[in-house]
User: Fold these one by one.
Assistant:
Number 1:
Amino acid sequence: MKVLSYVAVLLTVIGALNWGLVGVGMLIDQNLNVVNILVGSWPTVEAVVYLLVGVSGLLVGYAHVANKCTMCKK
């Protein structure tokens, strides 16, 4: 279960950084969406990546709200 927690946190951080780059890209009128740049030619793969990041965010959020985060416990 600890591996799942690490993967979920990693995907959540990657997703957050990607959204930050999307915002910066909008300000400077550039496409900085890394997921779209890497797999944009495969819309289904792009959708799966976004779904995995979203589910990871839910898992990380639930783990912290329910005080069940395996990485936070000693």
Number 2:
Amino acid sequence: MKRIFYTAMLCIAVVVTAIGCKTSPKTGNDKKSGTEKSLKEPVKFNRDSAYAYVRRQVAFGPRVSGTPANLKCRDYIVSELTRHGAQNVSVQTGEVKAFNGDVLPIGNIMGSYQPEIKDRILLLAHYDTRPWADSDAQEENRLRPVLGANDGASGVAVLLEIGRLLNQHKTPVGVDLLFVDAEDYGQASGFSTHDSTWCLGTQYWIENMPYASDSLPRYAILFDMVGGVGAKFHREFFSDSEASQLVDKVWSVAERSGFGDRFINKNGGSVVDDHIFLNKAGIPAIDIIETKNDETGSFAPTWHTANDNLDNIDPSAMQAAGQTVLNLLHNEIQCVQ
């Protein structure tokens, strides 16, 4: 994904998308949402398990789209989803053309929990890694692929751990897990707010979406770079402008779950990422991502460098992101269909 300067956003109109039930919730006359009541925390997110998922992905090497390592990672994700009870596990294959003319074979992976429930939440992350460490301080590293422990593996790890727990503890809503390819093959220069050179897998998925137009997920949450050392998650601009109610909801759950030191209720700038394309497709979507690192003021210092490795992964950051969303899911109220 690519950083967008906040000052460039001032002329953009703000459109807020509602994320609540379009019909009455299944709670009789109770008008409060589940997250406004006392917070239930029926299941614990295991940060050691999440770290093991990161370690396993990193062992494949850089997972650049179209490479053998990417295919191995794809097979691994499919295997883990199947092992932990996901239903309708599928790989959507196709080809996309990158900004430099490369034609990339891609595979978007999806698995569902409680597919019989029509009221659904979509969680997603990208599993590919950057083909070039073009932000590395050492020039000799800039044409080498990124290992992507944080930028790639951490979001996938959180999804896989959530999936493992969803198999053991059902939620009031159905949950779909989506692992997208070819997110990180974009052009580094420029600051367009509609930069379609990034998130190619998500754009392909949207063009061939498995949902009917009248049965889209209620909302979507993207996990990206959620494993950096000391990572804090500010309110990303496009998330706030398109789905501020969902941002409010998630950050409130985080605070009540004891992660107020990780989920900072302040603006953190803006990012071209998968959630932008989901919002444009009519699915309210937000991005949980580190965009205001204490050292850089932007992404983590390992972003698109040779240092994005296991040495710079913080399991407690993944726990904060994963536990928050697990608590959100378990405290949702199913909408009447």
